């Protein structure tokens, strides 16, 4: 019973399946597009992802900004920093596993968490695990590769997320997050002994202003990123990917990671390609590396992330995750 309720909430509030159904009706029934066409695949993907991302971004920034008008920002940050370290990063990674977001959709959540004062290690652990590990996809992975591989995939995804967040935290990379992300409501005149004397109208006005400010800064990058992802999603056939990775050479893992970065899909979009590779005899280590690369290091999401973090942090994130994925791929090719 509880699992059914969770699944429905997950479908409607997070994955927004209702939104996809609306665009399917518009494109298929109203405009009569062919459901098997590349144009439909790209356009449907673009429309759905654009609206979903803007909804997530707006709602999360509004909520975090609204809550900030009730509390002393500095006190909040000091409290939140206490959950840093290993346990904080593990919490961030576990939060990522229960949120069914692709890499681009994870960016608004990352902004919301960062804006709320969560430590940089925690937010990046979330950013790594959220697109890579989706508990709803475990059954699907198990149906293709078996439960052992499904559980291993989830485990290594969480481990990589915790290690990545820990390294980014240890390197003190929080200074490389753009100020417009970290700066919330800071009108100190509104605080008296830690309590704010703001009217409801002022709170709502401040929250809405924060939403408009961040959307104004990132909307171009969101559109560019999703547009690239939509073209890739619709026009790069599975056969091309399978053909390039079909031979299990020593460099297959490197090729898998490099191929995965320009692509854009969530774990469900990546699994059909992974299944095709598996049926063609590609090793599991190479397949896992490809899946992780596509879901976590997609070019569209990196374009969006570049707007909210500076190049030093972006480069560090890419290097840590890429090396982690390559190591995981090689280890699995050796032991499986």
SSE topology:
Elements: H1 2-14, H2 17-30, H3 38-68, H4 73-81, H5 85-97, H6 103-115, H7 120-132, H8 138-145, H9 147-170, H10 179-182, E1 191-192, E2 195-196, H11 200-235, H12 238-245, H13 252-260, H14 267-279, H15 284-296, H16 299-308, H17 311-335
Antiparallel strand pairs: 1-2
Structural overview:
By secondary structure, this protein is an all-alpha fold. Helix content is 76%, strand content 1%. The chain contains 17 helices and 2 strands. The protein has helices at 2-14, 17-30, 38-68, 73-81, 85-97, 103-115, 120-132, 138-145, 147-170, 179-182, 200-235, 238-245, 252-260, 267-279, 284-296, 299-308, 311-335; strands at 191-192, 195-196. A hairpin with a 2-residue loop joins strand 1 and strand 2 (195-196). Helix 7 (120-132) runs antiparallel to helix 9 (147-170), helix 8 (138-145) packs parallel to helix 14 and helix 13 runs parallel beside helix 15. Mean pLDDT is 77; it is low at 186-195.
Q: Quick gist of this model?
A:
By secondary structure, the chain is mainly alpha-helical.
State the order of secondary-structure elements, H for helix, E for strand.
HHHHHHHHHHEEHHHHHHH
How many separate domains?
1
Structural class: mainly alpha
- 3D shape: globular
Q: For the largest beta sheet, what order do the strands appear in spatially?
A: 1-2
Oligomer: single chain
The amount of beta strand, in percent, is under 5%
CA radius of gyration: 20 Å
Figure out the total of helices.
17
Largest sheet: 2 strands, antiparallel
Low-confidence runs: 186-195
- Distance N to C terminus: 37 Å
């Amino acid at each position: 019973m509880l699992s059914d309720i969770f699944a429905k909430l997950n479908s409607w509030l997070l994955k927004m399946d209702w939104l996809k159904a609306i665009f399917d009706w518009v494109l298929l029934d109203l405009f009569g597009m062919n459901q098997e066409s590349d144009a439909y695949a790209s356009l449907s993907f673009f429309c759905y992802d654009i609206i979903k991302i803007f909804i997530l971004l707006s709602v999360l920034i509004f909520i975090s900004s609204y809550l900030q008008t009730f509390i002393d920002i500095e006190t909040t940050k000091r409290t939140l920093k206490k959950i840093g370290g290993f346990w904080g990063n593990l919490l961030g990674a576990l939060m990522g596993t229960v949120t069914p977001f692709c890499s681009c959709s994870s960016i608004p959540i990352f902004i919301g968490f960062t804006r709320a004062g969560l430590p940089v290690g925690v937010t990046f652990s979330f950013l790594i695990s959220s697109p890579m590990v989706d508990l709803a996809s475990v059954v699907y992975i198990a149906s293709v590769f078996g439960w052992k591989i499904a559980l291993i995939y989830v485990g290594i995804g969480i481990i990589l997320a915790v290690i990545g967040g820990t390294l980014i935290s240890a390197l003190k990379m929080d200074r490389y997050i753009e100020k417009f992300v970290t700066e919330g409501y800071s009108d100190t005149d509104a605080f008296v002994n830690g309590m704010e004397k703001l009217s409801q109208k002022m709170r709502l006005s401040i929250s809405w202003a924060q939403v408009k400010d961040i959307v104004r800064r990132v909307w171009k990058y969101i559109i560019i990123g999703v547009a690239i992802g939509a073209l890739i999603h619709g026009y790069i056939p599975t056969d091309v990917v399978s053909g390039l990775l079909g031979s299990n050479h020593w460099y297959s893992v490197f090729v898998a990671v490099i191929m995965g970065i320009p692509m854009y899909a969530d774990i469900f979009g990546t699994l059909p390609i992974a299944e095709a590779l598996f049926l063609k005899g590609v090793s599991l280590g190479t397949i896992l590396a490809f899946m992780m690369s596509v879901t976590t290091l997609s070019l569209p999401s990196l374009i969006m992330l570049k707007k909210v973090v500076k190049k030093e942090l972006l480069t560090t994130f890419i290097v840590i995750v890429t090396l982690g994925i390559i190591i995981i791929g090689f280890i699995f090719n050796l032991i499986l």
